[in-house]
Design goal:
Elements (H helix, E strand, L loop, with lengths): L9 H16 L3 H10 L4 E2 H8 L3 H13 L3 E6 L2 E6 L2 H18 L11 H4 L18
């Protein structure tokens, strides 16, 4: 799939629904926070609930969405599941590109009347607990 074929090409139109689904998977502040935590390494659902201050069911739902989008994977560890990024370099690249784009656009995205910060702010994610490189909450 390519999104950059050109405006006259059919491949562009065909790839857009898949790209839109990917960006929809990235469109939630809680899911972005989960991805951010997983850039540090593997986490259990319990670790993520503690770090993010979200309910276990909420974290599990977001992880299911991210798994269905192909962004995270899990493996069993005892009775728990441990989650990690799939294609970590590509996910990190998308997050880094988004950060650069946000820097370049300034306040444009934050002030967007349809999708600006006030319309998508999740107060529970705004109060993330800090943790060290090993994922231990502080």
């Amino acid at each position: 799939m390519t999104m950059l074929t050109g405006f006259a090409g059919e491949a562009l139109a065909e790839g857009l629904p898949v790209a839109a689904a990917l960006f929809h998977g990235l469109s939630d502040p809680s899911r972005l926070a989960i991805l951010q935590h997983l850039t540090l390494g593997e986490h259990r659902v319990r670790d993520l609930t503690e770090h993010l201050g979200l309910a276990q069911s909420t974290v599990s739902g977001h992880l299911a969405c991210l798994r269905e989008c192909g962004l995270v994977e899990s493996r069993p560890e005892g009775r728990a599941s441990v989650f990690s990024l799939t294609n970590a370099p590509e996910v990190l690249g998308v997050l880094a590109a988004a950060e650069r784009l946000l820097e370049a656009t300034g306040q444009g995205v934050a002030l967007c009347p349809n999708y600006g910060v006030d319309t998508v702010t999740n107060p529970s994610v705004g109060q993330l607990k800090s943790h060290d490189a090993q994922g231990v909450a502080r």
